[in-house]
Every structure is written in structure tokens, then in C-alpha cells.
């Protein structure tokens, strides 16, 4: 039986690229999103998957819709 799995590396890459496009450092973004910088770093490296709450905080802090980030993740998974 096929069980789809979300690739944490793709999630991290997409978040990293959105952050860099906005010109925001990990330090600033983690502060705005109220998450630890090491946590954000681990997410961007694909070592951890963000919860929906964490993804929402990250997107809100970058002033990007969650749907835009998820849409980009979905494009890369296919």
C-alpha cells in the first residue's frame, strides 16, 4: 500500500527560498515567528518538519500566505 510522505528537505528548501527572497535573516525571522533560531535552521535544512502552527507563524512573519508556500511545496513534490 502506497503511503505518501512529505519530504522535509523540500519543505525546508521552500521556506529558505521564501525567506531569502524577503531578505530576512534566520535570526530576524525566528524572532518574528517566535520560534528558536536553531529550530528554524533545522527546518530549513530538512532535519525537522514544521507543525501547521509553526508553518503558519513562519509564513505570517514573512507576510506570505501559507497557501503560497504549500503550493510551492506541492509543485516540487510532483
Structure report:
With 78 residues, the protein is mainly alpha-helical. It is built from 5 helices and no strands. The protein has helices at 8-22, 26-33, 37-44, 52-62, 66-77. Helix 1 packs across helix 5, helix 2 crosses helix 3 (37-44) and helix 2 (26-33) crosses helix 4 (52-62). The longest helix has 15 residues, at 8-22. The chain is globular, with a radius of gyration of 12 Å. The mean pLDDT is 96.
Query: Largest sheet, described in full?
Result: none
Low-confidence stretches: none
- The CA-CA distance between the termini, in Å, is 19 Å
Radius of gyration: 12 Å
Q: How many separate helices?
A: 5
Mean pLDDT, to the nearest integer, reads 96
Topology diagram in text:
Blueprint: H1 8-22, H2 26-33, H3 37-44, H4 52-62, H5 66-77
Structure summary:
The chain has helices at 8-22, 26-33, 37-44, 52-62, 66-77.
State the main characteristics.
single chain; 78 residues; mainly alpha; 69% helix; globular
Amino acid at each position: 500500500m502506497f503511503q505518501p510522505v512529505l519530504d522535509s528537505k523540500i519543505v525546508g528548501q521552500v521556506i529558505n527560498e521564501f525567506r531569502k527572497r524577503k531578505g530576512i535573516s534566520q535570526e530576524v525571522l525566528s524572532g518574528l515567528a517566535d520560534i528558536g533560531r536553531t529550530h528554524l535552521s533545522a527546518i530549513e535544512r530538512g532535519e525537522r518538519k514544521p507543525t501547521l502552527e509553526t508553518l503558519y507563524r513562519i509564513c505570517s512573519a514573512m507576510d506570505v500566505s501559507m497557501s503560497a508556500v504549500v503550493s510551492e511545496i506541492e509543485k516540487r513534490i510532483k
